[in-house]
Design brief:
The chain has 159 residues and is α/β, with parallel strands linked by helices. 46% of the residues lie in helices and 14% in strands. It has a three-stranded mixed sheet. Strands 4-5 form a two-stranded parallel sheet. The longest helix has 20 residues.
Length: 159
């Protein structure tokens, strides 16, 4: 006699998010970092807040990351006020200072397209090859390729 145990897929995820799994300390730290970042951003001027990221907590110091040196300078001058803001959150009363870092954010750029060009004579050669081919798929592929040839004034392919 065998007994089948039905497992719910939601159970492992709820354990992970609920703070009972192996990743519970990591999840707790991520939530705290998000909480600190949201709190600080909510109390800073908009132009500064959108450039502020909380990177982590180590040896009593919270790491603040920004994408430009000008914002880092501003944050250094505001350290005392930032510390007061953080101490408003019960989980951050142990923060004694900050570590500042500049990490420029580079937007993802699509690689430039390399337009390939096919000369008229090369297109004519492909057309000739297509005409001499019995395989319909190959013939169709060669004709499509030949259609990309630069023929100047839309001249028909030379035969």
């Amino acid at each position: 006699m065998s007994i089948k145990v039905k497992r719910s897929r939601a159970q492992p995820m709820s354990r992970l998010l609920g703070g009972q799994g192996e990743l519970a300390p990591l999840m707790r730290t991520a939530r705290l970092i998000d909480q600190a970042q949201s709190h600080l951003r909510g109390h800073l001027p908009g132009e500064v807040g959108e450039h502020l990221y909380v990177g982590g907590f180590h040896n009593g110091k919270l790491t603040l990351i920004t994408d430009r040196a000008v914002w880092l300078t501003w944050l250094r001058y505001e350290q005392a006020r930032l510390l007061e803001l953080l101490h408003q959150l019960p989980a951050f009363t142990a923060v004694t200072g900050f570590t500042f870092k500049v990490r420029p954010v580079h937007p993802v750029k699509a690689p430039p397209r390399q337009a390939r060009q096919l000369s008229g004579p090369a297109g004519d050669e492909l057309t000739a090859c297509a005409e001499g081919t019995d395989d319909p798929r190959l013939k169709s592929a060669l004709e499509r390729l030949a259609a990309h040839a630069d023929r100047g004034d839309d001249a028909p392919p030379q035969r």
